[in-house]
Write a structure and sequence with these properties.
The complex is a heterodimer of chains A (about 220) and B (about 500). Chain A has about 220 residues and is an alpha+beta fold. Helix content of chain A is about 25%, strand content about 35%. The longest helix of chain B is centred in the C-terminal third of the chain and has 32 residues. The chains are: A alpha+beta (about 220), B mainly alpha (about 500). At the A-B interface, α1, β1, α2 and α3 of A face α2, α8, α9 and α21 of B.
Chain lengths: ~220, ~500
């Protein structure tokens, strides 16, 4: 059996760590629709007996996650936050996402991620959000905002309709290809930057940074 | 085949690898400078306002209104900044980014690569003048004067061009720091390969990488400390000569013109000169004229300190009676020397660790402290051991670096105590970034301690490579998994 050299172990370690970082980066990669307001509005408890229902329209294709701003909550032993995305009639389940939480601080933004919905543009969806505590009846708190935008169509919280309001949330999208995602990230990073840090210049700078960094580290290991 | 061999030899040359490290640091810095939206660096709007204030015409032909500097500021318009900073800040969503950690800029999807209000900002409708007095500035340091030069040269360009060019000036100063760090490691006694790895570890230190993209006078103070350290190391290697004295004096005087904390270099310099004199004339009785020369030199340097606009009495907290001073010190120490405050300093020394609530944020400094615990044990052994490994620097260099660390620690805490004595609260504190000027010294000490424990050169080199891999990965993690998602996802 050939002996594995320490250099190869180091090369494997760096490849592994870079891979993990890249994986996390790709899993975070989404473009929230910033036309949705995201503020600390009216703080309201979510009753555990009835899920929150928010109907909204997607502004583009590739709906991939919903970011929700939670308020400071006393969760006791914690519980499960569960989001379900239905079609506009609120009858056909399209996607669901759940995550375990043990604490929620004021200003905690939580990403509910699901597999990409390719043809989401101009379609209405029915978002169903529920908190299932593990023990006791502690509830999660959420922020409500006045949102006259036509994208926010209907909100029902604790069995009560809230006309003209929405929860503090943002739908987020992904493009159909990695290159389109890179171009969109480049566009966002370019905003409010001078010409020499925009567009292709920025892509070249990013490439040179990564190229020289990895090359220098590898040469130092070898 | 010979061509491939010569290529292999070329890419393994220290000068080639050093160039790669410097290029990596520079382009990383420019990328990070772009990553952080306008004014979001540490006190960046204030430092940029200082540059703008210094670039203002001498004849103030505009109406200036008296307005006290507010303590509780809600928006950027509450600061006594120039009209251009206030309005460009509002237009570029600075208030959202500053006060709403969970929020991003309100991106425009319809205007392509330009922000919603970018055309307005680029039309330069606002004057880069301070309409309020006193202006909210951070002194008149050398860094601000350099920045104000850029401000003047590119006065007909948009604030975005001027602001980001000054950020790139900081990146250039950071790159200079890495070059000086390499020279320090090379001259202190490490072998070329180890010196390069140490320089690379420093180059991938995330906080240094991020702080030297900010508009802030510390971006100049950091290479100045590195320059002084290099001068000190060269003096210990070659003996005191005009070259290394000039390096140290240049660093001290440039430091005085940059930030008052550079005063801490003075006692280290005096100590170093006394050490050299003792080594040379310790056994002779008549060294009076040398002591006199040092005394005159220190007087000259204190005079430079005054000329640079600093006041020693203003920096020191000895304002009342001895009892009051002692009581103030006691109160300051009880409030500042706590585990929580040390942890905060440590977290902010390494990078944006408070931005995410996860395992890495919670445990990173504990891991670093564990490594440092072993490094300290190794250093103690190193100091008391009669025979140390050849691949490590000698004791005098290590003691010199320890004095550098101690002097800056003392200086920062003295300054913090001074503010505490006046306000009764820890308004300044000891954020980790204040300790970055000694980063090269810190990293060298840590790995010297570990190298002492490991005892074998190949183990030592492997510990350096492991450190490099961890620092590189941590830097990439903070850039791509923490900062980038915070501002753009």
């Amino acid at each position: 059996m050939p002996k594995i050299s320490i250099k190869n172990i180091f090369l494997f370690a760096i490849a592994f760590l870079v891979f993990i970082i890249l994986l996390k980066f790709l899993s975070d990669w989404s473009f929230p629709d910033t036309s949705w307001p995201l503020e600390k509005g009216e703080k309201v408890k979510m009753e555990t007996s009835q899920p929150l229902v928010q109907k909204f329209t997607a502004s583009r294709d590739g709906l991939e996650r919903i970011k929700v701003l939670f308020a400071n909550s006393s969760l006791g032993d914690g519980g499960i936050l569960e989001m379900k995305i239905y079609d506009e009639t609120c009858s056909q389940l399209l996607r669901e996402s759940s995550l375990k939480v043990t604490s929620l601080d004021s200003g905690n933004i939580i990403d509910f991620t699901f597999s990409r919905i390719p043809n989401s543009k101009d379609k209405s969806f029915c978002l169903n959000l529920a908190y299932k505590p593990q023990k006791g009846a502690k509830s999660a708190n959420i922020f409500l905002l006045n949102n006259p935008s036509p994208q926010s169509q209907f909100l029902s919280l604790n069995g009560q309709e809230r006309p003209g309001q929405s929860i503090a949330m943002r739908p987020a999208y992904q493009n159909s290809s990695l290159w389109q995602n890179i171009v969109e990230l480049d566009r966002r990073m370019s905003q409010y930057k001078p010409w020499f840090l925009k567009s292709y210049y920025l892509l070249i700078i990013a490439f040179l940074f990564i190229f020289f960094s990895i090359l220098s580290v590898i040469l130092l290991i070898l | 085949m010979p061509k491939i061999q010569s290529l292999k030899d070329f890419i393994k040359k220290p000068s080639f690898i050093l160039t790669l490290i410097l290029l990596a640091f520079f382009f990383k810095g420019v990328f990070i400078a772009t990553l952080f939206p306008i004014f979001t660096g540490q006190d960046e709007a204030r430092h940029y306002n200082t540059a703008q204030f210094l670039a203002e015409p001498r004849e103030k032909s505009w109406l200036i209104t008296d307005r006290d500097i507010k303590k509780d500021k809600v928006t950027i318009r509450d600061y006594n900044f120039s009209e251009e900073i206030q309005e460009a800040g509002v237009a570029a969503d600075f208030d959202i980014l500053r006060h709403e950690m969970y929020n991003t800029s309100l991106f425009s999807d319809s205007t392509g690569y330009d922000g919603k209000n970018e055309a307005l900002i680029n039309s330069m409708p606002w004057k880069p003048y301070n309409y309020f007095s006193p202006p909210d500035t951070a002194g008149k340091s050398l860094y601000h004067r350099l920045a104000s030069l850029i401000e003047k040269i590119f006065a007909n360009q948009s604030i975005l061009v001027r602001f980001y060019l000054i950020r790139i000036l900081s990146v250039f100063l950071g790159t200079l720091t890495i070059f000086l760090a390499y020279l320090i490691t090379r001259n202190i006694g490490f072998r070329p390969r180890e010196s390069l790895i140490l320089a690379a570890i420093i180059a991938f230190h995330p906080k240094l990488s991020m702080y030297t993209t900010n508009i802030n006078y510390d971006a100049l103070l950091i290479p100045i400390f590195a320059l002084f350290t290099l001068g000190g190391v060269l003096s210990l290697k070659n003996g005191l000569n005009w070259k290394n004295i000039l390096l140290m004096l240049a660093a001290i005087i440039l430091g005085f013109y940059t930030k008052g904390i550079a005063l801490v270099l003075l006692p280290v310099f005096a100590g170093l000169v006394l050490f050299h004199l003792y080594k040379k004339f310790g056994k002779e009785k008549n060294i009076l004229h040398y002591v006199l020369a040092i005394f005159l030199l220190i007087i000259f340097l204190f005079f430079s300190f005054r000329v640079a606009g600093h006041s020693l009495t203003g920096l020191l907290p000895f304002k009342g009676s001895a009892t009051e001073t002692f009581s103030s010190l006691q109160s300051y120490l009880s409030k500042s020397l706590t585990i929580g405050r040390f942890a905060l300093s440590s977290r902010t020394y390494w990078g944006s660790l408070g931005w995410e609530d996860n395992w890495i944020s919670d445990n990173f400094t504990n891991i670093v402290w564990s490594i440092e615990f072993f490094a300290v044990a190794g250093l103690i052994w190193f100091l008391f051991s009669k025979k140390n490994p050849e691949y490590l620097p000698d004791k005098t260099n290590i003691i010199f670096l320890m004095f550098m660390i101690a002097a800056l620690q003392l200086g920062i805490r003295l300054f913090d105590w001074n503010v505490f004595a006046s306000t009764g609260s820890l308004d300044i504190g000891t954020p980790g970034r204040y300790f970055l000027p000694n980063l090269a010294a810190h990293i060298i000490l840590v790995f010297t301690g570990l190298g002492m424990l490991l005892r074998k050169e190949n183990y030592f080199r492997n510990s350096l490579i492991a450190g490099l891999i961890l620092m590189f990965s941590f830097c990439l993690y903070l850039i791509f998994n923490v900062v980038l998602p915070r501002y753009y996802f």
